[in-house]
Write a structure and sequence with these properties.
This protein has helices at residues 22-28, 32-35, 40-43, 58-65, 112-126, 136-153, 167-174, 176-193, 218-233, 261-277, 288-309, and strands spanning 7-11, 17-20, 46-48, 69-70, 75-78, 84-95, 101-110, 156-165, 199-204, 207-215, 236-238, 241-243, 246-254, 283-285. Strand 9 (199-204) and strand 10 form a beta hairpin. Helix content is 43%, strand content 26%. It is elongated. The chain is α+β, with helices and mostly antiparallel strands and 318 residues long. The strands form 3 sheets. Strands 1, 2, 3, 4, 5, 6 and 7 form a 7-stranded antiparallel beta sheet that branches.
Amino acid sequence: MDSIADGVLSIGSNGRISYLNHIAEVMTGWRCADAVGQLPGLVFNIVDELTRRSVPDPLTRAMQGELVVELPANCLLIRKDGYEYLVEDSVAPIRDADGDVCGAVIVFRDVGRQRADARHMTHLAQHDGLTDLPNRLLFAERLDNAIVLAQRHNRKFALLYLDLDGFKRINDLFGHGVGDQLLRSVSERLVHCVRASDTVCRHGGDEFVVLLSEIDGAADAAASAATILRVLSAPHSFVGQELAITASIGISIYPEDSADMQTLLKNADIAMYRAKEQGKNNYQFYSAQMNVHSLERLALESNLRRALERNEFLLHYQ
């Protein structure tokens, strides 16, 4: 029993502690010699993690009910010195040679690290590794929730699609290390520009998306976009140098511009490219005319690329 990784604690027919293995001694803070003869609730002191209320002694329940018992979820074992373990366990009655119940045994383990690891893995799966902002996966979930709430309460929200102006040039001139520092600095400023209920997502590369969860109208989105442009344009200070960066922002509004998640994102993206065409460092609201313009531009790019492949250009000198 002392060689296994789980705690083992048992009571005898008198309902008192009869045995603790080494792990049980460590986790309860009681030496076996001191614990023998004590009531199980004193040595194995467990409470509900949320309510902090004592949990009925599972050993006595198992022995009296002659059945296997499991602790409810989120139970804390309070060690003798006050240290807390999040535990899970199973408890079973002990039977003698005649099949009569003569005690009970509990096998328990610390699952706090396991839960922390699971939370950490979930965080990694839902957040950008460089900036620690929500990634596309988590952002899509929050955007979907925003649509459900907006429909239920007849509210509006806005998407701001943001692209840094000239970021590639900074990467080329100063290297990707400086570029990464700049992205982290931009991320921190974006988070401070919005409310706690809003979401800032790194959508990829030097693109970010901001979900303004509740707005009264377009003026609120415009005010947020103007604040972001002003805050981002202030120099970003790094070791021995300062860098200035601006951004172009496209805005789409729910439900005016679409009630569909993907279409809202696409429309905000189209508006962002319009902001680029308008000289950068500004914001533009999506309009249906932009979509027509975007399709025309896409067709032109496709035709130009195909013409180049087919050697269909004719050059005239003047």
